[in-house]
Amino acid sequence: MQLKNDRYLRALARQPVDCTPVWMMRQAGRYLPEYKATRAEAGDFMSLCKNADLACEVTLQPLRRYALDAAILFSDILTIPDAMGLGLYFEAGEGPKFERPIQSAADVDAIGIPDPEQELGYVMNAVRTIRKNLNGDVPLIGFSGSPWTLATYMIEGGSSKAFTKIKKMAFAEPAVLHRLLDKIADSVILYLNAQIAAGAQSVMVFDTWGGVLSPRDYQEFSLQYMHKIVDGLTREAEGRRVPVTLFTKNGGMWLEQIAATGCDAVGLDWTIDIADAKRRVGDKVALQGNMDPSMLYAPPARIEQEVAHILQGFGQGSGHVFNLGHGIHLDVPPEHAGVFVDAVHRLSKPYHQG
Ligand code: CP3
């Protein structure tokens, strides 16, 4: 079926568009009262992920409110470690936790590579249900975490500030960590290819914690494995390219290396000027980003001013997918997200003439 709105895919291919496409990281979530209601109906977050109809419902909720140019699968990056048997749970107010974190070489050797249509079949069912219900309105983005980012949660046992356990393994027993990262990379390749087979029209890899590494360690422990993933992905489906976006938060100093993996787009947080980013890599890849999500606390006029600045920074032509530089905060007024999305469409038109 022909997509009714393919601006997002066209911008990733750096083909002409009528205006700059936009979506928001974590666009389905707790800042929306309708999300909170559906989550309450499901019971808890993982039950919501595992119910294809409810996961589809929360995926579509932000699209009903805002003129977004893409939908993103409602799921989480921690589905893979959960499927590996680590026992994911969420402690109220504390974020994700694992009952059985990875602590030793024996733990690394004991975990298997999940079969995407078995242990992760609920994710593929959600993809199929969402694709059907989107009815060709906008493309569906699939996603996964990067091996390094997933390994931080698996080894630290949850969220972390200093990452001492995984860094201890990286520097004291590098071969063990490499075995783990390799298993995760293989799992991610199978998982994303299964999402593509189930109907995802684009995929994104979230490397939330690559930016806590030194340049050399980033290359060795994070980027190398994202490169392996890019090499292993299905790049065409339904007669169309399936673009892959790599996003390393705090990775602005490594844009050239990220672009050199062969990905289609690089995600930017807000700590880099998009004009600089375009100068450095804009002839190789598309760019996604890069407004500070906290800007959505500001009054509408300030949000519009910031959107205008970023559009001006990217300048004329295609190759930009507007987004927040990280996930939307849970206490922003929903109307401000609407101001943001409409401003991107309205203010970007002059950059796409001729
Ligand atoms: O963007 C979307 O709308 C799609 C859904 C999505 C979720 N998580 C839903 C979610 C995506 C793309 C993610 C990715 C994710 N999950 C990342 C990478 C992106 C980033 O934010 O850096 C990371 C690091 C995670 C791990 C994770 N899952 C965390 C840190 C949390 C927050 C815990 C909390 O209580 O705030 C989650 C849970 C989670 N994932 C929620 C949502 C909507 C909140 C759960 C809830 O409803 O209580």
Automatic annotation (TrEMBL):
Domain Uroporphyrinogen decarboxylase (URO-D): 21-30, 141-157
The keyword Lyase belongs to this UniProt entry's keyword annotation: yes
Catalytic activity from the UniProt record: uroporphyrinogen III + 4 H(+) = coproporphyrinogen III + 4 CO2
Domain of life: Bacteria
MF-aspect GO terms: uroporphyrinogen decarboxylase activity
Chief place where the protein resides: cytoplasm
Signal peptide: none
Compartments in which it is found: Cytoplasm
Alphabetized CDD domains for the sequence: URO-D (cd00717)
Broadest EC class assigned to this enzyme: lyase
Site residues by UniProt (Transition state stabilizer): 76
Involved pathway(s): Porphyrin-containing compound metabolism; protoporphyrin-IX biosynthesis; coproporphyrinogen-III from 5-aminolevulinate: step 4/4
Residues engaged in binding substrate: 26-30, 76, 153, 208, 326
A Pfam family it matches: URO-D
E.C. numbers: 4.1.1.37
Family label: Belongs to the uroporphyrinogen decarboxylase family.
Function according to Swiss-Prot or TrEMBL: Catalyzes the decarboxylation of four acetate groups of uroporphyrinogen-III to yield coproporphyrinogen-III.
Subunit structure: Homodimer.
HAMAP family reported for this sequence: URO_D
Database matches in PANTHER family: METHYLTETRAHYDROFOLATE:HOMOCYSTEINE METHYLTRANSFERASE RELATED, UROPORPHYRINOGEN DECARBOXYLASE
Protein name (database record): Uroporphyrinogen decarboxylase
Organism: Fluctibacter halophilus
